[in-house]
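Posting here for the record, re: adenosine-5'-diphosphate.
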Amino acid sequence: MSKLRFRVVETAFKKRPVNVELPSERPSEYFAKFVFNREKMFKYLPGKVFEKLADVIDNGTPLDRSIADEVAAGMKQWALEMGATHYTHWFAPLTEGTAEKHDAFVEHDGKGGMIEEFSGKLLVQQEPDASSFPNGGIRNTFEARGYSAWDPSSPAFIVDDTLCIPTVFIAYTGESLDYKAPLLKALRAVDKAATEVCHYFNPEVKKVNAYLGWEQEYFLVDEGLYAARPDLLLTGRTLMGHDSAKNQQLEDHYFGAIPTRVAAFMKELEIEALKLGIPVKTRHNEVAPNQFELAPIFEECNLANDHNMLIMSLMRKIARNHGFRVLLHEKPFKGVNGSGKHNNWSLGTDTGILLMGPGKTPQENLRFVTFVVNTLMAVYRHNGLLKASISSATNAHRLGANEAPPAIISSFLGKQLSIVLQHIEESTDDDMLSLSGKHGMKLDIPQIPELLIDNTDRNRTSPFAFTGNRFEFRAVGSEANCASAMIVLNTAVAEQLTEFKNEVDRLIETGEEKMAAILKVVRTYIKTCKPIHFDGNGYSDEWKEEARKRGLDCETSVPLIFDNYLTESSIKMFEQTGVMTQKELEARNEVKWETYTKKIQIEARVLGDLAMNHIIPVATQYQTSLIDNVYKIRSLFPEEKGKTLSSKNIELIEAIAEHTAFIKEHVDQMVEARKVANKIDTEREKAIAYHDYIVPALEKIRYHIDKLELIVDDQMWTLPKYRELLFIR
Ligand code: ADP
Ligand code: MG
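Prediction output follows.
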């Protein structure tokens, strides 16, 4: 090992777990301690104001500005009592992270002193000078005004000394510049459409919530080792590194005992998460070495999404207390599993019905089938768009690779649900008539057991799997803001349910009995959306061929996948549901293409630098020592014997020469290709060029570097190797 590498490896190896003290209270007592939740609203707000605010939160009634001052006063009082000194609007711009700008509560009191000040105006709306956030040209830098506006449905919380107020972020002209604004619109759209469909079955339903339960996967790496890998530091993934002889082949990490240093990190993370009201529940080792998972109990989608954004920043922070860095990148290491973020999604009513779960009566089961089939229709019609919603430069490494969902969206239903749908599909119109019968209730739907699928029946290769009472969208990236996927899914289901309602109503108008009409439409849908249903092995090559025949979107180039946002059917869907305008979609796509290009551009630069400054010098140095050895052997022995004895080293010298020559040549070519690509003036074409020319170059160069890693003397190799990064904890 090189000296530097030896030092960081040794230090990492010696580290002991940090002692995390458990709070003296029980989790149920400190849960949401730092959240201005309903309990605190009740305590700190006047009764009338509390009622109005609760109405805004529960029923989405517009916020009455006149209560803002009193809410702000209550919030301020609570925050000051908790020791907060600052406040910020907290939002999610079109980067993957969150943004905040802290202001102190202090104001001049007009008498030469200071007072703590926080008005309703400051709570409700602010104008961050936010011209440097991605905006796809909606807001030119000279028109810097955009504003953040309070989202009362997600409660304010305190981190360190700062009161954080969840907000949307919008351009002055009204276009959304963030993830939350369209998400809230998508949730409203699906609420409205689903509530109307619910009324066929349960007239008392007033609201339908979308639920989200995310499962966050991540890697932990010792921070000393991390710091010695410029590629990890700058791009979040290793751009080179030969497989460790042992990685995940023994399958000994998944659900294994959690290493103590990691357990200490998890413990502290969970305590802090619970204090922030995030209902974390599950933790375990994942498949790859040093890979882990964390999952909370599912929540209303908007809140769940804020909680995911919050936990990602919490993870980054707390990892450092334990001498770790957390890697949220989808594919930090080649050759072992990448990280995803399964999005468990379902719809449920304010009356407590989970709409994606079967019930006890035929009518409940018709309702269940209705919602499942409409979801399948939505996923079928917008499968390309759904793929676009989870696509990114980083997630591209995961999709299509062997451990992850393929780059084709399909849905796994499992045996029992498949049989039910087949049965309905095969029923005839005559059956239908007899179904409706006199009472309209004798529905010929097979009994569906409440627990539909047991865990063994799960298909891990499916990107969109039905799992008993929900769908699990597994293709979402670990680093992503889930809102991107949730916006598309909820909007697509909203559009679909609205069309379903129209079709059923038309049949009812022509005299069809209600339940029979529903069944009739459901039956045609089952036929139409069949291509999306696939229970087989999603990793197989046959499936790719089959999917193509079925007309599913099989594109693998991320910049081209983004085109799905701008197809006629996507624009129509977003505009009719009121979620996004064409202008917003176009602007956001500019951001997507630009981000894609920049990520690859950074990787190319880092790889170029490392190849030239770390790899080639070290390889050449080793090669020189081999050459030296050859000369010495030859001078020591008679000619023939000297040749024989040095022949293996000659082979190594040649191999090193070939690899280094290839690397140098391809780094030069990559620089040239970048220069050409950088001159392209549309973001889309530029991203395509980066995808077509730079990404393959990265892989080729890496191949030769990894070969060198196997040859070159370990004492000289400066970069921590996979066996160190993945196994020291
Ligand atoms: P796994 O899929 O790994 O077995 P779990 O059974 O622990 O995972 O559940 C994963 C997530 O799904 C959890 O966040 C859980 O709360 C969530 N979940 C369970 N039921 C629903 C539902 N009806 N809607 C949305 N999320 C749900
Ligand atoms: Mg899961």
